[in-house]
Amino acid sequence: MGELAEQTGLSRRTIDYYTNIGILTAERTGSNYRIYEESSIPRIQIIQHCKSNNMSLGEIKVLLERFCEDEVFNKVEMILDKLKEIETEIIELNSRYPNLNEDQKCWLNQKINQQTISIMQAITILIT
Questions:
Q1: Secondary element (H or E) of residue 109
Q2: φ, ψ dihedrals at 35, nearest 5°
Q3: 72's torsion region: left (phi>0), alpha (psi -120 to 50) or beta?
Q4: Is residue 15 a contact partner of residue 4, using CB atoms and an 8 Å limit?
Q5: Helix, strand, or coil (residue 35)
Q6: What pLDDT sits at residue 21?
Q7: pLDDT tens string 90-100
Q8: Residue 23 — φ and ψ, nearest 5°?
Q9: What pTM was computed for the model?
Q10: Domain ranges of the chain
Q11: At 66, is the secondary structure helix, strand, or coil?
Q12: Handedness of CA 43, 25, 73, 38 (dihedral sign)
């Protein structure tokens, strides 16, 4: 559990709580330690993303039960990875933004909007 807490930034108490309510799963060792699979990390990323969008843990549990049993979970993970890439790119471009001329600013805004729309469409397809 300590390793998972370190990798995700969650406290051990939060991980324990998530496990107790069933939104995370763990195997028990002979000494009663919990062992979490690698898939717990993207699962926690999804939980954190949903919480940041004001979803309750009950709603998140339903969402995870519905999607994590099939290939949709992998697609959600890919979308989250793409969102991180876009966030990084936006942060980098924001530092350059003041130095751009109006045409460059317009092009940059269109590019960001297109990527955002593509991601939102992918998410919509996954959840419907």
A1: helix 102-127
A2: -115, 125
A3: alpha
A4: yes
A5: strand
A6: 93
A7: 778 778 788 88
A8: -95, -10
A9: 0.54
A10: 1-69, 70-128
A11: helix
A12: positive
Helices (H), 38-101: 40-52, 57-67, 72-96
Contact 26, 62 (CB under 8 A): no
Instruction: Kindly indicate the confidence band of residue 113, based on its pLDDT and cuts at 50, 70 and 90.
Output: confident
pLDDT of residue 45: 85
The tokens 């991180």 sit on which residue?
84
CA gap 65, 100 in Å, rounded = 46
Q: What is the pLDDT of residues 11-54, one digit of tens each?
A: 999 999 999 999 998 898 888 888 888 878 888 888 888 888 88
Q: 């028990």: which residue's tokens?
A: 28
Please give the CATH topology (third level) of the domain spanning 1-69. Answer: Multidrug-efflux Transporter Regulator; Chain: A; Domain 2 (1.10.1660)
Terminal Cα-to-Cα distance of the chain (whole angstroms): 34
Judge contact between 121 and 114, C-beta under 8 A: no
Name residues whose C-beta falls within 8 Å of residue 29's C-beta, 6 or more positions apart in sequence. Answer: 35
Of how many residues is the chain composed? 128
Task: Report yes or no: 55 and 64 within 8 Å, Cβ to Cβ.
Answer: no
